[in-house]
Amino acid sequence: MEAGRSRIAHKHFRLDVAKIKHAQRLLKTGTETETLDRALDVAIAEYERNRLTREANERFVRSDIEIRDVYGKLAG
Hints:
By secondary structure, the protein is mainly α. The protein has a domain at about 30-65. It is about 55% helix and about 0% strand. The protein is built from two helices and no strands. α1 packs across α2 (about 30-60).
C-alpha cells in the first residue's frame, strides 16, 4: 500500500480459523492481522497481474500478427 494513503480501521469478522492458520503458515506471518493484511496484498497483486495479462492478450489478438509454425509442430 502506498505510504500516506494507508488507513488502519478496527474491523470485526467471523472467519474460518483453519483458513487463517493455513494462510499464516503459507505466508510465514506472525499474527492473524499480519496474515490477513498480507493475504489482501497477495489478492490485489494477483488481480493486477491478471488485468495486465488480459490487456496484453487483447492487444495481441487485435494486432492481427501472423504466427508461423517454423518447426512444423502445430500441423495436424
